[in-house]
Amino acid sequence: MSAIKQMENPPKARLAVRVGVTGHRPHGLDGADIDALRKKVKEVLKHVRGVAAEVKSSFESLYADGGPPILRIVSPLAEGADMLVAEEALAEGYELQCALPFDRQEYEKDFTDGDSLGKYRELLGKATALLELDGSRATPDLENEAYQTAGRMVLAQSDVLIAIWDGEDEKGKGGTGQIVRESLVSEIPVVWISSMDPHEIMVLMGGEYEGFKEASLRGLELRLKRVLKPEYPKKPDLSRVYFQKRQPTWTWGFVFEFFCDIFSGEKMDAGGYRVGDFEKETAEEWRRVWDACPGFPQSVKEQINEKFLKHYTWADKLANYYSNVYRSSFVANYLMAGFAVFFAMLIPTTEKLDNLWILCEIALIVLIISITAVGNLKRWHEMWIDYRLLS
C-alpha cells in the first residue's frame, strides 16, 4: 500500500459536477435532427460548466487548488442518446464514467452493427471509471430489471440528469420515462431535450412526478448553485472549522479508554494520552484490510489508496478523538459526582475536617460544571457526530 502523503490539515476536495444521461435508443430518435440535437446537448453541457466555474470562483477557500472543476458525464453507453451525449461531453472536456447493466462482453450484444459496436468500445476505452453490473438475460423481466438497475445507478451518481425523451410515460422497467420520474421524485433536476425536431430544452424540477415544475436553464443554474455551494449556517460553519484542524498531540480522552480497560480486563495503555500519527495509523489499518482481502482488484485498491484514504483519515481520526473526549467527560463527571456525594456524607462524621470536605465537594462541583461548559463551548459531541458522518 502506498503511503498517505503527510498533511498538516484535512485535505480539500476538488469541486465536481456529475451529469447523468438517459434517453431513447436509435428507433426512438427517428424524428430527430441529429446535428441539431448535438448542438442542444453541447449548449447544456457548456451551461453546466459555466455554473461550476462560477461556484468554484466564489468559494475558492472550500475547494482544493487543482485547476477547474471536475466535470463528469455518467452514462450506461446504450446505443442512441446515451452514446451521443457521451461523445459531446468528451469533446467538451468532461470525464466519462460508465455503469453497464451487464459485463462489457455481454453488453456488446445490444449493438446492432459494427459501427455502433466500434463506437461503444472506443468510448469504453476513454472511461475513467467503469461499473459492470451482474445483470441477467435469463428472462425478459430479468433483462429489463438489469436496465432499470443501471439507470438507477446513473441517478445515484448524478447532480443533474440530461434526458433525450419524447415525453411519453414509461413503457417498461428501466425506460427513459421511468428514470425521469425517479429523478424528479429524488429531486434531481432533469434537463429534458425533446427527441423530436426542433429539440426544445425544458428543465423539470420537483419532488413529485405529477407536480413537477417547468423551468428554464436559468432555473437549472439556480438549482445547481444550491447543490454545489455550501449554505451559511447560523452556528459556526463546520466546513470551514474542519479545514483549519491540526492533528492534536495529546488527549484527555484516554479517561474513557482507561475506564473501559478496567472493566474489560484488557491491558491498560500507559501512553494513552498521546495521539498517534493519523496517516501512519490509517495506513496500518488498511494494510491489514488488504492483507485480509487478497482477491480484491488491485486497480480498486489503488484508487482507494490514492483518492479516498487521505480524506477518510482525517474525518475518521478526528471523529475518534472527539468521541473519546466527549465520553471521557461523562466518565469524569460521574466519578467526580460520586466523590462529591462521598465528601458530603463525611461532613457530619468529622467535625474538625468538615470545612475540608465542603471545599472538596465544592471544587468537584465546579469541575463538573466547567467540563460540561467547555464541552458545550467546544462542541465535542457535535464534532464527533459530524466527523463520523463525514467519514
In short:
The protein is built from 13 helices and eight strands. By secondary structure, it is α/β, with parallel strands linked by helices. The two termini are 20 Å apart.
Structural overview:
With 391 residues, the chain is an alpha/beta fold. It has 2 domains: 213 residues, Rossmann fold (3-Layer(aba) Sandwich), CATH 3.40.50; 152 residues, no CATH class. 53% of the residues lie in helices and 11% in strands. It contains 13 helices and 8 strands. Strands 4-3-2-1-5-6-7-8 form an 8-stranded mixed sheet, sandwiched between helices. A hairpin with a 7-residue loop joins strand 7 and strand 8. The longest helix has 49 residues. It is elongated, with a radius of gyration of 28 Å. The mean pLDDT is 86.
Average predicted local confidence, pLDDT = 86
Helix content: 40-55%
- Count of discrete alpha- or pi-helical segments spanning 4 or more residues: 13
How many beta-strand segments?
8
Element-by-element helix/strand order: EHEHEHHEHEHEEEHHHHHHH
Globally, the shape reads: elongated
Distance between the termini: 20 Å
Q: What is the alpha-carbon Rg in Å?
A: 28 Å
CATH topology of the largest domain: Rossmann fold
Q: Low-confidence stretches at least 5 residues in length (pLDDT < 50)? A: none
- Any idea of the CATH class of the largest domain? Alpha Beta
Structural class: alpha/beta
Main β-sheet, spatial strand arrangement? 4-3-2-1-5-6-7-8
